[in-house]
Amino acid sequence: MPAAAAAQETPPPSGFHHLTSVHYDGTGDDLLTAGLGFDGLRGPLPAPADPDRPTATELRRQAVWASAGMRAGSGGGLGRLYGANVDRGRPLPGDGRIAGTEYRAVAGRGAGSVSFVVQVPDTFDRARPCVVAAPATGLGGVYSMVGTAGAWGLHRRCAVAYTDKGMGPAFDDLRSGTVMGYDGTTGPRKEVGDRSAFDPGLTDAERARFDAERPYRVAYKMAHSRTDPQATWGRDVLRSVRLALALLNRDRRSGAPRSGYTAATTTVLATGVSNGGGAAVAAGEDDRTGLIDAVVASEPQMNLAPLNGIRIRQSGRAVPAAGLPLIRYNSLASLLQPCAALTEPSAPGYATLDVPAARRRCAALVGDDPRLITRRDAERAGEGGLPRLAARALVRAGFQQRSGYLQLSHYDPQTPASYAMSYARASVDDALCGYGWARTDDTGTPVPYRRSELAAAFGTSPGRAPAPGVLIDENAPGGPVADSTSRGADGRHDYNLRGERCVDRLAFPRADAPPAERTWAARLAAGLDATRRSGDLHGKPALIVHGRDDTRVPVNHSSRPYLGLNARAQQGSSTVSYVEVTHAHHSDAQTPGLDNRYVPLGYYYQQALDVMWQRLRGQGRDAALPPSQVVRTVPRGGEPGHAPELTPANVPPIAAHPASADRVRVARDTVRVP
Known about the structure:
- This protein is α/β, with parallel strands linked by helices.
């Protein structure tokens, strides 16, 4: 039997186009491992036969390989205690290949397009049907959750519905005219035609002018779509579920519910990580018809509605800031991080820190802005004390004190820059705050992409400019240069203070700003407001897990205040169970310095899915979820890079009956965290 039949295009359900289906026999190719098996997922990135012209099958295989992340090794528990090859804490036998049918479809066109994949295993439980809706993590592509939520759902004989939320890896290389199609393959703009997943909206004349002024730049979908895709995350997830149900009904077989696959007959769980977690929550809020039964989210990135009196207290003390949207806490962090990093010389990445430039950043932060370093405090602390003041400013901004060790590794100016463009619906030729993206040479000067680099983007560049493209400071003295090597007016490296301050001013607008700046700030604010979450899940149960030390999505700006918003929406009786995990952060990376200090949050995400599943299928839908709680973990210890293996003793389970001292409680609009 062949590994897969040829992809067949059939009439799509209403609202979708470019629908294809492929059946994988589970031998040569499959749903979960793309034909690699568990051993192949542990190996190196599978290379295409022709790097300049990878096929859609080869690109899919690379994307599925990346989603499992199993090459990282098992010392941190991945692949041994949790992961695509582990179910309910036990490693699965065999190589993990799962036979079934995979559908791909698209809604919208070009810059406004959203990609979907639905996987239906041959073992699909038609008597007790279930759909797991798994929106992409981060800015990732449509396959980015196959190795996590996808594996979990397929192991339970569910169909799995994926979406890239309109923020996948599509791009337009403005010099060569190379674009990405819906299936990840690339080619000339005119040849790809209506299959293009992104169009920056430039006329031929505008494109030529822009390339003449700023050669070799690339536009990419997340930053330059001019559609604010975050605003439709919840609706995109709901569309993925409706697509899955429509396809199941189209291929109805013996054993199916008499009335077909509907919200009433099918269990639907929306789940995701980071941006995907925020999208799962958004779907729960946007669903007012009972399509979704429950939500599970890990470290969800959410922009919240104004808290209006909801407070957070940790260890009896009020936290200084809560509920800020990503664009605000991230732009502020980018200003402070190079200086604050000087307090943690053993932190990952410190060897690459330009210490003199970081000290100059410290001095530049001194002024009248109370969010940064005030002159009065600077005079008291002296020049040597400025890094400590920057670290304290991060804590005042709502970051955990223990996250100081992670601040440098999370310094990423392109995140606030790209989100500012996305919210403001900016075009690539606006070069908002003087930012662009390009491949560069060793001096940081923009140069042309290689064809193979553009061709590989579907699997190697989730939601960002194609690798190895970097953020460009278009306004640098002497001409455009890589942002990481940008210099100030005095000719010295300054981490592009000018650009970062511009983004911060748009995120925190000033009444006395110039008219053009006020206009962009207003556009950003409007786009941001379209993405806010209210906390109203309409009674749906939700289980959220989050690492206390998260520095990418701080708990004080996401899960903690969301618990308060949900309790208010439910008149004091929250339907959200919140699990905060100590010694866990946003990434499960086990690089030296992280391996001995942190435990993987992915272990608790998989456990949270099991807990919710037991409620939906085992104990009954009226059974209570575990109370909100802090899980106190034990780091692996040892020397950086030589931590002992993670064991169950390091990661105690989510407790059905946590000790009173570990309970997270909500009362009178106050979230109290031990």
